[in-house]
Amino acid sequence: MKNIYSEDAFTGLEAAIVLIAFVVVAAVFSYVVLGAGFFTTQTAQATVHTGVAQASSSMEIVGNVMGVAVAGTPTRLTYINVSTALTAGGTAMDLSQMVISYTDSNGARNPNVDFGGATMNDCGTTLTDDAAIAAQTWCVSQKINEVGTTNNLLEPNEIWILSIGMPETSTVNTKITVNLQPAVGAVLPVTRTIPGGLVKIQPLY
Fold first, then answer.
1. What contacts 78, CB < 8 A, 6 or more positions away?
2. Which residues fall within 8 angstroms of residue 11, CB to CB, at 6 or more apart?
3. 3-state DSSP of the chain
4. ∠ Cα 190 192 195 (to 5°)
5. In whole angstroms, what separates CA 68 from the centre of its chain?
6. Which of 12, 13, 18, 180 has a CA-to-CA distance to 37 between 20 and 30 Å?
7. Strands 93-94 and 99-104
8. Using CA of residue 85, residue 89, residue 95, residue 101, what is the dihedral sign?
């Protein structure tokens, strides 16, 4: 007996189902790939922006680092003066957020030298008060070529003199390292050796 039913319609339906399945799988795969690509691109852009910000926000030392010993017959440094400025083409930097740390060859270590100035433009009694000196604080003792109104920003063409208190271990022939870590930008290490004999003011090399 001849079969009056045809399976052509079922074959077409099956083909349509397979086609739809392939389209759905391809769409999901494309979404995943595009999402991963967008994420990678955004991460790369963030890395580039961060690198540019770090490179364009950095300080440098201008001139000599001066060691000051206020005692009559000094046996150690009281504080040092570090003249800082922005590197060429650098962007303004907020020094109120800067962290200063100290180490020396005698084993002293201070990961956070406190800011002891009355304001960012005035050391107040930090450089003359024995308690402030013993606590090892820092301040901005002078701003040269200050642009506009007084603020916390080290700006292009400005030179700020930072006065950083020294601990009792900063004696003669001691190697000291002071790290200046701004909120944005590279760490500026300042490594010097205290000479074998001290006077009131001397350059450190």
1. 68, 69, 70, 71, 127, 133, 165, 166
2. none
3. CCCCCCCHHHHHHHHHHHHHHHHHHHHHHHHHHHHHHHHHHHHHHHHHHHHHHHHHCCEEECCCEEEECCCCCCCECCEEEEEEEECCCCCCEEHHHCEEEEEECCCCEECCCEECCCECCECCCCCCCHHHHHCCEEEEEEEECCCCCCCCEECCCCEEEEEEECCCCCECCCEEEEEEECCCCCCEEEEEECCCCCCCEEEEC
4. 160
5. 27
6. 18
7. unpaired
8. negative
- pLDDT by residue, tens only, the chain of 205 residues: 555 555 555 566 677 777 787 788 877 877 777 777 766 666 656 554 444 444 445 899 999 999 999 877 888 999 999 999 998 888 889 998 999 999 999 999 999 999 988 888 788 777 877 777 778 899 999 999 887 777 889 999 999 999 999 999 999 999 999 999 998 888 999 999 999 999 999 999 9
Bridge pairing between strands 114-115 and 137-144? parallel
The residue written with tokens 């950095």 in the block is 58
